[in-house]
Amino acid sequence: MARNTYLKKVLGEDRLERLANTKVIMIGAGGIGCELLKDLLLSGYGEIHIVDLDTVTLSNLNRQFLFRKKDIDKSKSLTIAKAVQSFNYFNAKLVPHHGNIMDTTQFPLSWWDQFSFIYNALDNLEARRYVNKMALFLKKPLMESGTTGFEGQIQPIYPYYSECFDCQAKVTPKTYPVCTIRSTPSLPVHCITWAKEFLFHQLFDESESDLSNSETIQNETDDAQEIENLAQEANELIELRKSIKTTDASPFIEQLVLKIFKGDIERLLLIDTLWKSRKKPTPLDWSTYKAPVTGMLSDISNQSLLINDTKVWTVLENIYVLYKSGSILQRRIKSGKESFISFDKDDEDTLNFVAAAANLRSSIFNIPIMSKFDIKQIAGNIIPAIATTNAIISGFSSLNGTRYFKYNYDQTGSVDFTPISKESSTVFISIKPNKYITAAALVSPNEKCPSSSLLSRGVFQITEEQRQTLTLGELVEKLVKKYGYEEGDLSVIVGKSRLVYDIDFDDNVEKKLSEIGGIGDGELILVQDENDRLENLELYVKVTDEEREHVLPELKLRPKKSVGDDQSVETEEESGGDVEQVDGVVNENDAIVIIDEEDDGLVELDEPALKKRRIQVQSLA
Amino acid sequence: MSLCKTRLQEERKQWRKDHPFGFYAKPAKGQDGSLDLTQWTAGIPGKAGTLWSDAVYPITITFPEEYPSKPPKVKFPANFYHPNVYPSGTICLSILNEEQDWRPAITLKQIVLGIQELLDTPNPDSPAQEPAWKAFMKDKALYEKKVKEQAKRYVNAGSM
Q1: Which CATH number is correct for A186-366, 1.10.10.520, 1.20.1090.10, 3.60.130.10, 3.40.50.300?
Q2: CB-closest option in A218, A508, A530 to B13
Q3: What is the pLDDT of residue A620?
Q4: A5-172+385-434 sits in which CATH class?
């Protein structure tokens, strides 16, 4: 029996044939990538390119099953391409690229154009946004995927027919106000942040901690007494740091403990305003601990405590660990081999110090103490990665991707994604009973999305010689002629936010394009109609050797919709309406949909800020 | 993010079309000759008939990458004399505080008008500097003298 007998039955002969002649790209060769490449390979794609900028590390091996110990420090993309050869049953051509996907020299727009489908297996927001933009530029289908612990999701993106990655606002990492960390902690994470970012940083690391930046502090608190107190605390630590090299271990740590867990806290207690509505902290009673700690230090068997990661240490034990790790760190600095030490979750000395200091501070502020293992998760920003979640999500990613090849988009060259976007769905998985798998139909792009709405995109092709002779003024004229802006009434923005031309700012019109930073190969230009008649235009600059007249893309700019014009903003504003809606910022609850199961498995979700979505609920048997 | 830049150019356009009398606001010019839309300078005229009149007070406005989800940071020159201005010059105003009244729909015009309003109606409940706040609470004569002195320093501050 041929190896593809079942595949043929599942996918159909036509589709299998199509897949065999298809070139796809997988970006990221990590947790999801290892699983996904296996799936793609066994689905019968003809050619698979793999991009990753990373090398294999020891901590990858527990779940990234295509890597072995001998692969450590080798390129992930090159290694993974070799690793799957043993089961490359359908003779797919594998092309690994070691590099950053956002590098426009290695991966110019023209390079992207060869692929029929983009599979993302990435782990960061920046690269996801970038790939999303490339997909929009080239109107290529993109399968987005991601996991955290037991949760995961896939989102098929059919440019301009379904929501893109930027259509839903993403939650940015939480930051804590400096004053919460420095004066009034109430959660273990506050104390861990203090121990790692402030205490450890001030004592052992290279530059001054952000948490002692006087301007940040002044912006946050208007209590002069508190500001003064925080400054004094930081200055005393600097003094203590100076004494690292000149003091013996025992007096150094004792001074440290007395200062941060007794003196500082007593001084904090003097600021009445802080404790009006909070429980007061209790300074460490050093006299009851001094003798027992000395006793513990003299018994070498206590050292086993340092490697007991899951035990929740007592206050005494925490002081002991602080002594032990503190003196080792001091010795490391004293030896002269290291002039400073940065916190690293895998450097046991630094982790012990931070864990013990965080716990002691917690106990002073009546906050629960945690085990070193738990502190490591928080201090190291470790998101647990689970192999099974990655495997399930990769399965959905690949399965949903093959659905696209039911249609013959490649041969027809059509970018009308209406049918496929109606058939595809976003899938969420979780550990919650009866909600293991939830699928939601794709929705149209968010009208307020900065990436996929009110925007046309195209490639502006130019030779290097033309770039050095064409002026900005001439380019503006060409734009006016080509797209029908009213005479000169447009704006040109390059880079992140640099305005180089608008009707009120013509300083640069005589300059050659090459003299204006930001109009080079692979860079983006944003053109906006200042009269609000035409939609925005984003141009990708492509510098070629082809000897011909520079080319602006053949596009017909659509009329700009009146969404978000200042009038509607005003009314929303005055009526105190939902501002999040006005600017397309969606609250974080919309990112993952968690719903109750109903008998027919269909639930109407009520989302006031968005369109209603029909959600299908299935249970995993 | 592209939302940030489209919105900033929109703010610039709206300002050009319509801005309150006596105010100015413009993005800073970089060394390469482009305008940095995330860095603005602006001038706030004191309201007529108040201690602050006949002067234009300069401010800098810095827009973060997350704008308009997050508010811009607005500063007077360091040591500006006003009860709600920190020694660094940072203005303490609820509409500029993400955790208080900032909303993405708030425009540049509303921000500068809010600051103009704040000049003559300080909020005694959120002191940001000691000298001006103390004088405002306990020694009105001293406060008025200091404010008028400061106004004189900004009489000829640029206007457009």
Answers
A1: 1.10.10.520
A2: A530
A3: 35
A4: alpha beta
Task: State yes or no: cis peptide before B127, omega within 30 of 0.
Answer: no
pLDDT for residue A169: 77
What type of residue is A610? L
Query: Among A120, A116, A117, A130, which residue's Cα sits nearest to residue A154?
Result: A120
Q: What's the pLDDT tens digit per position in A416-459?
A: 999 999 999 999 999 888 889 999 999 998 877 777 766 788 88
Q: Could you give the domains of chain B? A: 2-153 (3.10.110.10)
Q: How is residue A578 written in tokens? A: 């939902």
Nearest partner of B61 among B119, B109, B132, judged by Cα: B109
Distance CA B130, CA B136 (A): 10
Q: Do A493 and B5 touch (CB under 8 A)?
A: yes
> Cα angle vertex A443, ends A439, A445, to 5°?
140
Pairing verdict, β B35-45 and A498-501: antiparallel
Q: What is the mean pLDDT of chain B?
A: 89
Domain boundaries, given as residue ranges, for chain A: 5-172+385-434, 186-366, 458-544
B103 or A226, greater pLDDT = B103
Which chain B residues are Cβ-neighbours of A169 within 8 angstroms? 69
The third-level CATH classification (topology) of the domain covering A458-544 is 3.10.290
CB A96 within 8 A of CB A80: yes
Cβ-based contacts of B34 with chain A (< 8 Å): 494, 498-500, 508, 516-518
The residue of chain A nearest to residue B128, with distances taken between CA atoms, is A222
B5-33: per-residue pLDDT in tens? 888 998 999 998 889 999 999 999 988 88
Q: What is the pTM of this model?
A: 0.69
Q: Are A179 and A225 in contact (CB under 8 A)?
A: no
> Is the pLDDT score of A274 beyond 90?
no
Please report the ipTM that was assigned to this predicted complex: 0.86
For A400, counting Cβ atoms within 10 Å of its Cβ (0-12 exposed, 13-18 middle, 19+ buried), the class is buried
A558, A483 contact by CB (below 8 A): no
Q: Contact at 8 Å (CB) between A91 and A41?
A: no
Tokens 């001038």, residue located? B43
Chain B hits for A451, CB-CB cut-off 8 Å, are 2
The two three-digit tokens of residue A225, written as one number = 């007494």
User: Which of the four pLDDT bands, split at 50, 70 and 90, describes residue A525?
Assistant: very high
